[in-house]
């Protein structure tokens, strides 16, 4: 029995861009070192099933942004490069739904379930996931296919990438999204 593409989830790959490699090279510490490998697993599974894949790119607007369109941080990492026919949606804010036609594309295709991965957990991935849930999509955030970086809070407290990642997942779980592993998302895709 074959399924129509609209009965399958869509993969949303958020901001897997070279700027994050540059941040690491500048000694910014991240968690989830295997996240890009899990994103590759998801891409391979979605493509093998003929399920839709949407690539999101962040385009910086501030002069010191790591994501300026003519800068070295803007291009996608080679591992996550889109294939012909896979849409690339460019955003200028944290949410992939603001200032883009992502929602319209998803609705036009009858897509109800979104599997979300990419970078960073507590910024563009979180904002996109929250909006997906608020817009009524069945959002599934892939915990091992996203990552973030250590940060200093407003009071000078140091927060590890692991702590930030875990708290973001806890905040989103249940209300905005279901938190899943890449293996769980792939199994669900194959069972759809």
Automatic annotation (TrEMBL):
Cleavable signal peptide: none
Supply the SUPFAM superfamilies for this chain: Isochorismatase-like hydrolases
Single GO term (MF): hydrolase activity
* Transmembrane parts of this sequence: none
Q: Which domain of life is it from?
A: Bacteria
Q: Where is the Isochorismatase-like domain?
A: 10-183
Keywords, comma-separated and alphabetical: Hydrolase
Cite the InterPro entries for this sequence: Isochorismatase-like_dom (IPR000868), Isochorismatase-like_hydrls (IPR050272), Isochorismatase-like_sf (IPR036380)
Name of the protein in its database record: Nicotinamidase-related amidase
Species name for this entry? Answer: Bradyrhizobium lablabi
